[in-house]
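ping. complex inputs:
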Amino acid sequence: MNFEFSDDQKLIQDQARQFLAEHSPLTATRKVMDGESVYDSNLWKSIVDLGWTATAIDEQYGGLGLGSLELCVIAQELGRSLTPIPFFSTIYIAAEIIQQYGNEQQKQRLLPSIAAGETIVCLASSELAGQHLLEAKQTQYSNGQLSGKKIAVLDGVEADYAIVSATNTNKKHSLYLVNLHQADIQRTLSPSIDSSRPLASIEFIDAAAEPLGAEDAASAILTEAFDRAAVFTSFEQLGGCEASMQMGIDYTKQRFAFGRSVASFQAIKHIFADMYVAIELARSNAYFAAWALSVNDKKLPLAAATARVSAIDAYYFCSKENIEVHGGMGFTWEFDCHLYYKRAQLLSSIIGSSRWWREQLVNRLLDE
Amino acid sequence: MDFNDTEEQALFRAKAKSWLAANAQAKRQGLMAGTQEDRFQQAVNWYHKRYDAGFSCLTWPKEYGGQGLSQMYQVIWNQEVSHYGEPDEYFVIGIGNCGPALMTFASEEQKKTLLPRMARADDIWCQLFSEPGAGSDVAGLSTKAEKSGDEWKINGQKIWTSGAQYSRYGVILTRTDPEVSKYRGLTMFMIDLKQPGVEVKPIKQIDGGSHFNEVFFNDAVIPDNYRLGEVNEGWGAALMVLMNERLANATAAPDGFEDFLNWAKASNVDGVPATQDPIVRDKLATWYTQHAGVEATTFRMITAVSKGGVPGAEGSLGKLVGASMNQDIANFVIQQLDAGGQLTGDESTPLDGHFQSAVLMAAGIRLAGGTDEIMRNIIAEQVLGLPQEPRADKGIPYKDIPSGNTGA
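pong. complex structure:
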């Protein structure tokens, strides 16, 4: 048994961390949050040049053909720096779905251009708050055309393609690939909690669409895609947890009250100890899921759900308590605490929220 | 990353599996587990069998009664033995804490004589650190060791000493110099407890059992060659012992999850299977996440140790999470049973009354080996590097430290 990333993987992570510390300051995240753009295109170009978008794409489709573990360590660093780029939708979800389920022509058309950072792809599956994650009741596909409305689409404003779930004329729930650069599509930016990663609503009116994966396979494909994405996401969340805790430690160490450093009070130290515990549990669960993903072990579904629940809980806890230990300054727009708190919110919901994953976890645990 | 056994490890696992199937007892819990004396005798017999078959103290060198194997084999053994009901709790402290202390500080002859007997449970060992006035602040202890010739005279009292009533020997921490600050005047020894001047009094616990004791010393004698480490360097030696305790705790502390899952699979609440009840399901998700996280954290620790690292304060995590979880699980299950859940002598209670017994025991597990609050302090200060609490006893000679019981 060896439960640690390899030296090469750690090197990739160190380099990613150094690069992002220098080139992805939180001021870049704030520019997107303030609405100057929907993502940082210069940063996107830089990380494409570093090969990050190509990491887990097969070599025959223009990728580097590295494994999912390499992508995990990069995800952790992107999560730490809140880098405002459409990596989540394009790489963790879309590239994985296309690589696993696309036909040869779709793979050749999209994967090389995703690897080269030229194409951004989003997933448009949600229709209504509270509706079951895998259902598509209001979006219809018929004869090469798709109609309906999707909400809360991450990176939907800037995406070139969307993977859309819809019901066809046989009442079968399937996935479709839609080029978003066509007249029969209306995209609107939707105000949301974390505006540093904007969400869109997308309305399709008889838009041209092509099937992606088999008919009636939407639930199965999305379930598997969400499992895979959950592993990468848990690493992003882990990076965010670590950053939140470090921010709180740095601040309370140098701030004094009652003649003492705030960090020396037991009430404050115990909050940090609890953050540490939450982070280590999330880290260990994420590592186990990463291993299961990397060797496609049969434990992956349970491990992915466990990593996801653990990471959601840890990021919520660390980011909210970071605000708490900052006191009033933590509630200001000026301080960066809210950037992590808001990102924790976004990442907790974007591929199914805690409720859905807890259900998955228990189903899978009882099936063992 | 690789979670699979190597060929050699797989071979060992198969060997352990088949030996356990032929020799170990099935799980019996709660009311069915028998009296404390029964369990103790079972444990001794079990250790004899285990030792004779070559499955005791796997990581110890062969000449000291072990098998000279890496920590990974101990993990494999722990995983396999966890499916059975053999009692382990009586010797964990001796083997986990006292063993490594001897390994580091005792003479070659002592190691060759004492360690194999410890590994086979021929001699039981206990750890004599805590005192009535020195629990969480154990370095504030007052039991005196005074040198006369080639011997030391011991006077004072220890408390919370698990297994002292069964023990032949103990590892004891004493004060040898009250004129210096509290950490600098301590010395560690091993002591023969079967001698005049040593009195062991079991303490009755909230669950009615008596696993731990008070131990009184009145001019008890220790030869100087029983000293473990240098005079007045006992604190460093004690920290080393406690570090081993953390690894032992991290790999052995039960968190109650398996019992909870077994209960849920076998029970109804309000007439429906517990596994379909939304409240039970939510708890399954919460506790499985923690359970799996602690287990995987242990794998990470073991990976670090197998690469030559030292078990750090990270080991505090397993106990901090597991002990509370164990208590909360027991309480939760009892709450599903209405008034009948209060019965401790009824054969209809689930898992032979395990939860009724665990809800009481778990309160003690949260205290043993460092309270939850001390664990959090250790994590905050030693892992995260946060500033220490201001201490009222810093730099003061031990004899001048306020103790609260000197009167006005």
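The radius of gyration of chain B is 22 Å.
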